[in-house]
């Protein structure tokens, strides 16, 4: 009986740890035969249409206009800008493992934006941000990103957009369940394909089999399945467990990139990877590992 309860949890964690961690490597494969914006647009539009059709066939209704527009905005911030910029950066020869390491800073930026919305933060969490910034500086000081500043900037902007969208999305009304994700993906797909058209992207040749398989994997596994897994986790486990993918994904991406993709990291970049993961652990798990001391308020004696 206990195994039957643990199996969905372990499956969901596997989806986030391995599938989302592998998407950086798969994006790297895909952009070898697809223009980046076009590939990201096809990925999210196909995934969003598939999920939306499934929900409508199951009897779900489209949400009212206000939450629908809110979901569309979040889709632009998270997927079109957040993920789209990572795809463009990998097309500019930023190694997939390095891209994942930079994206791991999202919880750090999320904490900063949370402060802007009046959400209290602890000194321990700001220490995590400071350590994370040291890791980012190290990552940009030499090796793969030093010769590609535009790629590094694109990923940082994408990470900040994802972080802001995550915080802002928690403060506004969104459609319930997976309908929000479906609308976000459809919107992101349309925006990315429009950006591809404006950028003059064209298919000079039909993508090869690996290119089509990459888009299929990203749409089905990286989008539909992984997002469902994430929604299951945030409803059934603590936020610390649900967001633990942030420091597992870079490790998976680096191992895949170096083991299968022929990528290499310098000693400085390996050090930066460790520092950034440590910072993210401090920010996401710090309140559980080192809980704040309870504030004891003395009781006032009642007047006779």
UniProtKB/TrEMBL annotation:
Q: Which Pfam families match?
A: EamA
Q: Which UniProt keywords apply?
A: Cell membrane, Membrane, Transmembrane, Transmembrane helix
Q: Where are the transmembrane segments?
A: 12-31, 37-56, 68-86, 98-117, 124-143, 149-168, 180-199, 211-233, 245-262, 268-290
Q: Where in the cell is it found?
A: Cell membrane
Q: Is-annotated flag, keyword Cell membrane?
A: yes
Q: Which residues form the EamA domain?
A: 12-140, 150-284
GO CC: one term?
A: plasma membrane
Mode of membrane association = Multi-pass membrane protein
Give the family per the record. Answer: Belongs to the EamA transporter family.
Q: What protein does this entry describe?
A: Drug/metabolite exporter YedA
Organism (species): Silvania confinis
**Gene name tied to this protein:** yedA
């Amino acid at each position: 009986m206990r195994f039957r309860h643990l199996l969905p949890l372990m499956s969901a964690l596997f989806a986030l740890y391995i599938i989302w961690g592998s998407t950086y490597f798969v994006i790297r494969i895909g952009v070898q035969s697809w223009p980046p914006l076009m590939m990201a647009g096809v990925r999210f539009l196909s995934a969003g249409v598939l999920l939306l059709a499934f929900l409508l066939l199951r009897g779900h209704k489209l949400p009212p206009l206000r939450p629908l527009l809110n979901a569309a905005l979040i889709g632009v911030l998270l997927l079109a800008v957040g993920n789209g910029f990572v795809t463009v950066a990998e097309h500019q020869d930023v190694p997939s493992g390095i891209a994942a390491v930079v994206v791991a800073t999202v919880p750090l930026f999320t904490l900063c934006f949370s402060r802007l919305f009046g959400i209290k933060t602890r000194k321990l969490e700001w220490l995590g941000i400071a350590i994370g910034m040291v890791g980012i500086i190290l990552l940009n000081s030499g090796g793969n990103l030093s010769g590609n500043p535009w790629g590094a900037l694109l990923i940082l902007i994408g990470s900040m957009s994802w972080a802001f969208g995550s915080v802002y999305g928690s403060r506004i009304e969104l459609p319930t369940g997976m309908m929000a994700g479906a609308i976000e993906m459809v919107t992101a797909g349309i925006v990315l394909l429009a950006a591809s058209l404006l950028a003059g992207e064209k298919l000079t040749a039909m993508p090869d089999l690996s290119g089509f398989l990459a888009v299929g994997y990203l749409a089905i596994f990286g989008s539909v399945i992984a997002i469902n897994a994430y929604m299951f986790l945030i409803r059934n486990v603590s936020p610390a467990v649900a967001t633990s993918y942030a420091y597992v994904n870079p490790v998976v991406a680096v191992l895949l990139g170096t083991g299968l993709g022929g990528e290499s990291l310098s000693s400085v970049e390996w050090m930066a990877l460790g520092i950034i993961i440590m910072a993210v652990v401090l920010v996401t798990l710090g309140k559980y590992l080192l809980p704040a001391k309870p504030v004891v308020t003395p009781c006032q004696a009642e007047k006779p």
